[in-house]
Structure formats: structure tokens, C-alpha cells
Amino acid sequence: MLCEKCKKNSAEVAVHEVVMGEERELYVCKACAGLSDEAKLAELVGLLFDMAVKAESGAVKRLGDLRCPACGITRSEFRKKERLGCWKCYEAFGVELEAMIRDMHRGGEHIGKLPQRERELQAREKLEGELRQAVATQHFEEAARLRDELNCLSGRTLNCKERVPNVAK
Amino acid sequence: MLQSSQSGVAGAAVIGGVQPRVILSSRVRLARNLKDEHFPDWATAEERKALLERLVPQVMWASEDAQARFFDMSTIAEREREVLKERWLVSSDLLKRSDGAGVVVAHGEALAVMINEEDHVRIQSIHQGLSLMQCWEEADALDTSLDPILPYAFSGRLGYLTACPSNVGTGMRASVMVHLPGLRLTGDIDPVIKALERLNLNVRGTSGEGSMAAGLRFQVSNQGTLGMSEQAVIETLEHVARKIEQQEIAARLRVLRDAPTVFEDCLCRSLAMLKSARLMRADEALDYLSAIRMGMEMGMVRGVGLSRLEELAMVVLPGHMQNFFDAELDPDERDERRANLLGESFAACEIESKLIHESALRLRTARRQ
User: Fold this and answer.
1) If you average pLDDT over residues A60-71, what whole number do you get?
2) H helices then E strands: how many in chain A?
3) Burial class of B343 by CB neighbour count within 10 A (0 to 12, 13 to 18, 19+)
4) CB A20 to CB B226 under 8 A?
5) CA dist B323 to B81, B114, B320, B367, Å?
6) What CA–CA distance (Å, rounded) separates A96 from A62?
7) CA distance B246 to chain A (A)
8) Could you give the CA distance from residue A103 to residue A113 in angstroms, rounded to a whole number?
């Protein structure tokens, strides 16, 4: 009998699998019986982790006991579950994550939508930079306009036209 | 690998210009998490429950739909869980979680927000056909409404922070579901999948066995979420989806033209099973329905309509089967009732064998000219 999965090799073992929400007994070859997708993913994450640690050779011992100060999970716990404990883990496990993220994604930095707070923050930083520049080069009219815009952003001036540049676009 | 799309279009004109629907549906999902809360996998049941209680009214409000419904995974009936999954409203992952996990479904079923799945919030928008931009706009709108009331975990450099680093950045997974029976007949599924993977796209069968998808439906989605804007990802995927559609139509016409008996055999064999089997598994049924759908879209099937076929492709699924018969049925009972239902539904269905061979001849003649 041919393997019910790959339909190429001969079936050697019976495995139980949930197909379309129903448990079935499938007769499959050894290769197909090997690993589920989830197990493969776990293996990959583990592998990436090891690579990251090796890449930071010498740092292995130091990384060994790493623990996120915010949620308390350790890097071995993260490895086991493949899920981070909280958003602060991104800082705590920065070194390993950096390498994992490089392997998983094309780019290294976020491009796209920003939360409103972030958009406002970036708009403010941009205006502040421009204001410093305008003052330094003695463009005082321009500086006054920028100051008003900044005040607008902070809501310090009433009745000003809302003008929040959309940095995202 | 395959002929150009031009001959596909010309071929379609020869057999009557039927426009097959290769792209069945589009979906956009956004992953969001909150600062200062443990991610669901590390939160205690109490923490998850408290967060769920807090998020449900907020999500209901943001959905702007007075008819929005909430399903709590800890209290929902087994059959209902299956149905939600079969309608793509929840993931298998959410079904494994009980305490503090749930889903808000709104706007018919176009919008679904899973709470405490792998991430705190997962917004999904789904529509028929190639409609990724509409899906993105709707998911984006809900996200924008939630933004001021939820302190999202975000980093300027890494974007939205997620429980698994594979989702950081936009947190967006855009996908299209494509139906590829023609490429299976020409043996081109694997090369197409490999080509898509080289484009950094992820292809998987929809709950089928191994690499072959049940009902030959494949989900194609973006792999990376960092370093590319949502719009850019969607534009790429839409472009690729159109290419897949062209290739699939070309493949169907090529089989019809060059191997009409193979085409006919595929349809007749599938119909015979649907008409005569006494026991039928769900995945098996989807494969046969897939072949009949292909035949129907090319005008080679008589006696059953496309809407009935689409309805059956849903009814044969385990949860829907039990709802249809309004009874708890074990898998063996389901297989029997499923076979009976399909037998009745396809009793008057026939394959236009003569038309298949005539069309093949016309396609061959058109090619020579």
C-alpha cells in the first residue's frame, strides 16, 4: 500500500491525525510519519536560537540565565514555548531576537502603520528639530510658526487648526 | 512552465468565455498586543479572563455593529466551536484555549476579532474574491478605533510587538485562498508552490493532508511582516494572485485541449463517487466537489448549480453536518449521512462528455490557426 500522505513511498506505519476536525488513522511512510508542522516549527525556532547564541560566541554563559525583568520568563522558557512573555522581552532577549528576526523577515526596521501616540511623537520630534534649526539660522518668523504648530500639537493653544502631519504616509 | 495567459483568454472565448473563480476569498489579519500585560501564553487564567472582560465591550464598540456577537471559548458548545472554525472565524489555536479566550464576530462574518489567542488581539477581515484592499481598510479602521483606548505594545524600530517574533512589524498577515484543480491535473502544483516560496510567500493547504490541500484550496500569504508596508505587501500579493489565476485557467484549458479524456475522467470519477459512495469523509468530499466545480465553471456539468455546490462544500464539514441534521454525530455516522446527502444532491447531475470533446477539438483548431 502507498503512503496516504505523499502517495510515493510504501506505507509502513499507522499514525493518528486530525483531518478536517475528525481523527483518522492514516497509513504513511516513515518520512511522512516523522514530524508534524508544529514540531518542525519548534525545531526551526530552536535552531535559530542556537545559531544566534553561537554567533555571539563567548556570550553563551552570560546569556544562559537571561531573564526578562518585567515578566520573569527565562530564555529557555521562551525557547520551549516559542512565545515571548511580554513586550519587554524584546529588550531582555534583544541579542537572540535580533538574529531570529533577521532570519524571519526581509527588512530590519518597521515600515507601515504607526499607533496614534507614536505618530504624534514623531511629528513633535520633527517639528522640534525644525524649530531648533530655524532659531539657530535666525529664521525667526519661521521659528514662530513652528512654535505655534508645536503648541497646537500639545493642545496648549485653543482654536488652532488641527495639523498633525501623517508621518506614516 | 505554462503557456501564456493570452492563450488562456483566447481559449476561454472558444469554449464560451466562462469566467472561473480561482480566487475564492481574501483575508487580512492584524496582530496587536498591550503594554504591561503578559502575552496570553504566559498570563494566568485570571489575568486572561480579566483582560477578556475588559476587551470585549471595547471591541464590540469599535466594530460599529449593533449586531456584533461574542463567543466565549470557555462556555461555547463543542459543535458551535467546530462551526466557527469551519467558517474561518476562529483559528484551531483559539479552540485549544478555553479560559479567557473568545471571539467577537461582526458585520455578517466579515469581521472577527479573536481575543487572547497567541496575541491579545487579532483582527480579521475576510471577503469573497480578490478583495485584499477592502479587507485591509476594514481591519485598519477597527484597529484605528481601538488604538486610542488600548495602549498598544509598539517599538519605533520593530513596529507592533507580538508574542512570536515572526509577526513583529506590521503584525499583518494578508492571504488569498485559491482553488487550483487545473494545476493539479497538469502536475504543476509543486513548481508553482516553489515559485511562490521564492517570492517570500507562504503557501499551505487548507486543513488537508500533507502538502496536498483538501478540495485543492491553497492559502497564499506574506511571510515576513517587517520592513514592508501593509499597502506594499497587499499590492504584491494581489499581483501574484492574479498571476496564479491566469496560470490556473491556462492549465484547465490546456488539459481540456490536449487531454480531454483526462479531464473527462476527472469529472466522471468524482461525480461517480459523489453519486454512489455509501461512506464519505469530509476531505474526500471536498476533493470531488472541487473537480465538479472546475467542470461547472467550464460549462461541462449539468443538473446542479454553483451556489448549491458552494453550499454543499460547507455543509459536508463535520460541524456543519451536525448542525444540518441537528444531531451529535460521531465520525462514522457523519460519513454515512454525508454520502447519502451527496448522493441525493447529485442524483440529477451529469457530465457533458460530448461537449468536452467538441470543445477540445475547437481549442486545438483555434490553436493551429
Assistant:
1) 72
2) 8, 2
3) middle
4) no
5) 12, 23, 5, 50
6) 12
7) 27
8) 22
Q: Which one-letter amino acid corresponds to residue B234? A: I
Strand partners, B172: B30
CB contact under 8 A, B159 and A4: no
Q: Return the H-helix or E-strand segment holding B146.
A: helix B132-146
Partner B contacted by A19 (CB < 8 A): yes
* A60 pLDDT above the threshold of 60: no
Residue found by looking up cell 500639537 in the block = A153
Per CATH, the homologous superfamily of domain B23-248 is Glutamine synthetase/guanido kinase, catalytic domain (3.30.590.10)
pLDDT in tens, A156-166: 555 555 444 44
Q: Closest chain A residue to B319 measured between Cα atoms?
A: A21
- Interface A:B, Cβ pairs < 8 A: 147
Q: What angle do CA A58, A60, A64 make, to 5 degrees?
A: 150
Residue entry with cell 459512495: B277
Q: In angstroms, rounded to a whole number, what is the distance separating the alpha carbons of residues A81 and A90?
A: 15
- DSSP labels for B53-95? HHHHHHHHHHTT-TT-EEEETTTS-HHHHHHHHHTTSS-HHHH
Read off the amino acid at residue B109. Answer: E
Burial of B360 (0-12, 13-18, 19+ CB in 10 A): buried
Q: Which residue of A has its CA nearest to B316?
A: A20
Residue-wise pLDDT tens digits, B310-368: 999 999 999 999 999 999 999 999 999 999 999 999 999 999 999 999 999 999 998 88
Which residue ranges make up each domain of chain B? 23-248, 259-368
A108 neighbourhood in chain B, CB within 8 Å: 157, 226-227
pTM: 0.82
- Whole-number Cα distances in Å, A69 to A59, A93, B60, B267: 19, 10, 34, 62
Q: What is the chain A residue with the closest CA to B162?
A: A87
Q: At what angle do helices B331-345 and B306-315 cross, to 10 degrees?
A: 170
pLDDT digits (tens, 9 = 90+) for B63-111: 999 999 999 999 999 999 999 999 999 999 999 998 899 999 999 999 9
Report d(CA B274, CA A38) in Å as an integer. Answer: 33
Which residues, including other chains, have CB under 8 Å from residue A88's CB and lie 6 or more apart?
A68, A69, A70, A71
> Does A5 contact B85 at a Cβ distance shorter than 8 Å?
no
Q: Which of A120, A148, A144 is nearest to A134 (CA)?
A: A144
Q: Which residue, among B34, B35, B36, B39, would best test binding to A if mutated, counting the most A CBs under 10 Å from its CB?
A: B39
Sequence-ordered strand ranges (E) for B253-300: none
A99 touches chain B (CB under 8 A): no
Contact of B119 with B40, CB cutoff 8 Å: yes
